[in-house]
Specification:
Blueprint lengths: L1 H17 L18 H10 L4 E8 L3 E10 L10 E10 L5 E10 L4 E10 L4 E10 L2 E10 L4 E10 L7
Antiparallel strand pairs: 1-2, 2-3, 3-4, 4-5, 5-6, 6-7, 7-8
Length: 167
């Protein structure tokens, strides 16, 4: 009995690690760190649900979920048919830092919209950024919030002729 009790603290520390669900998706990442959309599209087309997923969880350290799927086909939001890449990355105890990014692509794999947000210390500071492809170039809108959204810094908008963020 004493032997079991002596190992109990180690078991309590290591038990959450046994629940880590890890599915690496390195086959879909190019050497520059961006996703290889041609491979993702091909894999999503092969899947009966039309989606590819990836998840990493290290308790109190890192949580990451990446999902690529077909989207917009007759949906209520009115988006054209294409693909959606959702990335959620969290670090630190109880998600101290969160980075969320959603990218939209047409059927040819060309990006036309990216929305991302970052939160530090449970939204003590949060930043929001949206990049949308328009006929006049890429419109980038940015906004920062402080103190859980109680204090907002006015949004900034600008146009960039050639933005690489939509890849």
């Amino acid at each position: 009995m004493l032997t079991v009790l002596r190992h109990a603290p180690a078991c309590l520390v290591l038990l959450p690690l046994a629940g880590c669900a890890v599915f690496q998706q390195h086959d879909y990442v190019r050497p520059d760190g961006k996703y290889d959309l041609a491979k993702l599209i091909r894999k999503a087309e092969e899947d009966e649900d039309g989606r590819v997923g990836h998840a990493v969880w290290a308790p109190l350290v890192r949580f990451e979920v990446v999902k690529f799927e077909k989207s917009g086909e007759g949906g209520e939001d009115g988006r054209p048919a294409g693909y959606e890449l959702e990335e959620l990355r969290c670090w630190g105890p109880l998600f101290t830092y969160v980075h969320d990014r959603t990218s939209l692509y047409d059927l040819a794999g060309k990006g036309y919209e990216v929305s991302e947000s970052r939160h530090v210390l449970w939204r003590l500071w949060s930043g929001h950024r949206t990049a949308v492809e328009t006929p006049h170039g890429t419109r980038i809108e940015e906004r920062d919030d402080l103190f859980f959204g109680l204090l907002s810094i006015p949004a900034r908008s600008r146009y960039v002729p050639d933005a690489e963020d939509l890849e």
